[in-house]
Amino acid sequence: MSSFDFVQGLPPPAIKWTGFPKYNFVGGNNDADQVPVEHLTAASNAVLAREGATLATYGLNSGPLGYRPLREFLVGKLKRDAGIVCTADEILITSGSLQGLDLVNGVLLSPGDTVLIEQECYQGSITRLTRRGINIVGIPLDDEGMRIDAVQNALADLNAKGIKPKYIYTIPTVQNPTGTILSEQRRRDLLKLADEYGVPIFEDDCYADLIWNGKRPPAIYAMSKANNVIHIGSFSKSVAPALRVGYIVAKWDVLSRILSIKTDAGSGALEQMVLAEFCAAHFNDHVPKLTKGLRVKLDALMDALAEQFGTAAEFDDPKGGIFLWVRLPDNVDTLKLYQAALASGIAINPGTEWSVNAAHSKSRLRLCFASPSVHEIREGIAALAEVCRKEFGVPERSANIEKARA
Amino acid sequence: MSSFDFVQGLPPPAIKWTGFPKYNFVGGNNDADQVPVEHLTAASNAVLAREGATLATYGLNSGPLGYRPLREFLVGKLKRDAGIVCTADEILITSGSLQGLDLVNGVLLSPGDTVLIEQECYQGSITRLTRRGINIVGIPLDDEGMRIDAVQNALADLNAKGIKPKYIYTIPTVQNPTGTILSEQRRRDLLKLADEYGVPIFEDDCYADLIWNGKRPPAIYAMSKANNVIHIGSFSKSVAPALRVGYIVAKWDVLSRILSIKTDAGSGALEQMVLAEFCAAHFNDHVPKLTKGLRVKLDALMDALAEQFGTAAEFDDPKGGIFLWVRLPDNVDTLKLYQAALASGIAINPGTEWSVNAAHSKSRLRLCFASPSVHEIREGIAALAEVCRKEFGVPERSANIEKARA
After folding, report:
1. How far is B126 from chain A (nearest CA, A)?
2. Which pLDDT value is given to residue A1?
3. Interchain CB contact of B114 with A (< 8 Å)
4. Where are the beta strands (DSSP E) in A219-363?
5. Where are the domains of chain B?
6. ipTM
7. Which pLDDT value is given to residue B398?
8. Are the CB atoms for B13 and A257 separated by under 8 Å?
9. Would you call A13 and B256 a contact, using CB atoms and an 8 Å cutoff?
10. Residues A244-266: pLDDT tens digits?
11. How far is A149 from chain B (nearest CA, A)?
12. A95: which chain B residues are within 8 Å (Cβ-Cβ)?
């Protein structure tokens, strides 16, 4: 018998991975055809020839904040795209924005603390909070993102109870999973509330590059006059998810605390070097091309849903990103649909895993459209409709739908 | 004023990095001249051309355990070098062996738990335990590594108090910082004790590739009959530290628990891909060449110490690795020496940071010789001797030393 005595409260053991499902509508995977392989190869050759020997040193010649040319690129990019004025010493490169989440949580959260987050939210953010024993207050969203009136009410309620939340977490620009963009006015209002109640804002902007019309409001970080925002971002969505390169932007008094608990001896240097070399030359051309391709896939997905589900599937056209948040009729439990679909080789994200409001999300699901081909999207949604009909009688076989399929 | 309310007990804020000291004898940095840049470039070109598009997917096509060809390489390497028989599904690729430490600690340790570790030990392992609120029992070492009689006494003492340690942590093969190798007999004895007391062993083998004569005993993991060992390793020392690629070897019942708390969406894929491609073709030729070069630097360091410090500096010739553990006379406080040396552009590791026994380690220091050139080693040790003489009157300006310097 094994002598390992595991700590209490661990997640269940991992299941052995057996490959991807035939129709894969989950995860932040991207379009394999759009990985800029040739340019990444050229970047790798150039940077290794010039600086390969520096791999002998932890942190290269850049120190613990990460490869300096990548931070310098970000200084320019964040200024241009998000209106953020910062120096390279206010940026910490992380192993994906997930490490960013862990580090920010690590310096700010203790068990029993309270945070505000968008009611529908990235699963990884929710589970991180749950595992730390944090009280989560969910803020409902509408088509302009987080509802500021609800933020105000929540802050007032908590204040009346003597509770000061540790932060307000938001994915304001292409919200996950709803695909909304928080308007500039709401950003101003949110900052005002944050200031009034002395609660910092944790801004997760990892999808902000992928907007159909290429236009985004300034980052909340950029609009803040008080030093009360932490901003994180990622190259996972704009270049390649498997690279695992993200970043944190914060003033040094905050970043120096975050850096002190980043005890990993630096994030992967080769990926930082290759990305910096690639981005300096090609990022600005690459992103619009990628986004255009993603929009084609989104259209295919929305067409397939209309064709296969008819009026049974409701959704708003997202402003960008790689996923669609879909509402099915109330009698559909998407957690059960998820299980039945998986057995048929179709992977979807059930709504309750992407929300802190089970009643609201029970019949909703998230579909990622970046990874499957247009053909797979069409076939997969047809197959999903079959499963859903068999399990829940939805969508009905109406004449209307039959006609559309003919 | 900032509204950030940091949690209690954080480490002090990080200090801004201002570049490397002139003479850098700290950290696990390696020899810049020995980074196999050409082969890494060729590996990058080959693997990107073949599989670059898979970067669009988290975990590539390999799932959460890491890039399968790298795990396959390790299966062969661990068999040949360490006698470990395992499958690719018993290996988890990590972001450096530091993530391995965090993950293993994460599934096994709660505040107040007790562990046994070598009294002189890797600083990163000690601070990780301290931050988790773990009771550390240090086991003294001699020139064959961890003293098994002391392990036996410690286990018996704890048992009498009703305390069962969560693990025995050891760096058995080129111990950090002492450079010893735990003999095969001691490994057998340690396993017997572990079995008797039902305490698992946590084997950290990150330096095991760098042995002067290329010969090492089988890994403790390989010798265990009772599924009670977790083994971790790294490519940081054998290929390049900045790459941040390590691994954990464990049976699936243990690895599945570890994997469940690895919530980083995979370790950096490009580095895994390039390493796998490089290692399959060149690892076996690269390591002996690297080791030969390191031995030249060690000889330079030992010569410089003898020349500059004479009999004031005592040390054993390490069996491999990248550092030398040096004892100075009792009146030298190496923490003070460290501060004075740093002011003169010389970085050393003071003994107390690499030990859980302050009295034993107060006059000791660790010197890493892999990164500085032979010339820098000579100049740096001369400069260190000057600082030490000024601060502590050691080494004395004896005729003997003067002669050697002439």
Report:
1. 12
2. 53
3. no
4. 229-234, 246-249, 323-327, 346-347, 349-350
5. 23-34+285-405, 37-282
6. 0.95
7. 58
8. yes
9. yes
10. 999 999 999 999 999 999 999 99
11. 22
12. 95, 244, 264, 267-268
